[in-house]
Amino acid sequence: MLDGGLGTELERRGVSLAGPAWSARALEEAQGTVLEVHRDYAAAGADVITANTFRTQRRRVGARWEELARRGVELARAGGGASARVAGSLGPLEDCYRPDLSPGASGRLEHRELARALAAAGVDLLLCETFANPVEAAVAVEEAARTGLEVWVALTAGPTGELMSRGGLREAGRACASAGASAVLVNCTPAAMTLSFVEAARESCARVGAYANAGAPEEGLGWAADVDAAADRYLQLADRWVAAGASLLGGCCGTGPAHVRRLAERRATQRTLRTSTRP
Asked: Average pLDDT over the chain, rounded to whole?
């Protein structure tokens, strides 16, 4: 069980994420809130807490990138407690919704230095997430795998589902699995559109997962919608991802602790049913 959206949850709690540093700003200006969000996700049932390192890249935050990356890992470790695994987040070097701006293979050294810094900071696994450019995704996975840590990759079709086709995601997933990813996930794609991409990811021959965004506000899956009703709607969609083969679940933009709690409750119920039906 992964956690839910971090950047949008920080914004919901009043933290400004303006500028190129985006969520990394909170590591300097709102450490207490970052810690609070991590704790809330752990309390909701998340087994994996993702460190706030998506934008702790040299090109985004300057010379202090490594210090901020370490701080992000420390806060995730403190928030997750003794039982949760900490995932170090590596994001695209440019806008995650503009794969045409990706440096592709030429960004290798930057992914390498962040992967190594996160490994040195003590993360349990590396999560290369929100990649829509398949070349950069595979390069990030390769450099993460060089650390010797477990590596997951999360691919996105974007807010309208048009940044990556189902076939494109299938091929990108296969390339990332060959590069060293043990799991291929679909993330930051509207929850209502995620199922077909999960089915495509299933063909990557790796473990499969999904942590979708809440889509448009009018869909009622997150954002300003009634929290309990939104979490219930998200769960109904997540049940379909599980039926399609997903075994790693969480939430992305617009989701929060309530969504993770619903997912964790469903998992607990299913485990109880399996145990009770054993001969």
From this structure: 94
pLDDT, one tens digit per residue, over 20-51 is 899 999 999 999 999 999 999 999 999 999 99
In a domain, 268, yes or no: yes
Reduced to 3 states (helix: H, G, I; strand: E, B; else coil), residue 237 is helix
Instruction: Note whether residue 245 is domain-resident.
Output: yes
Compute the distance between CA of residue 268 and CA of residue 279 in angstroms, rounded to an integer: 20
Cβ-contact 200, 175 below 8 angstroms = no
The letter for the amino acid at 2 is: L
The residue segments making up the domain with residue 124 are 7-276
**Would you state the pLDDT for residue 205?**
75
User: Helices (H) and strands (E) in the chain — how many of each?
Assistant: 11, 7
pTM: 0.94
Give the count of domains, the chain: 1
Give the CATH number for residue 116: 3.20.20.330
Assess contact for 127 and 87: CB atoms under 8 A: yes
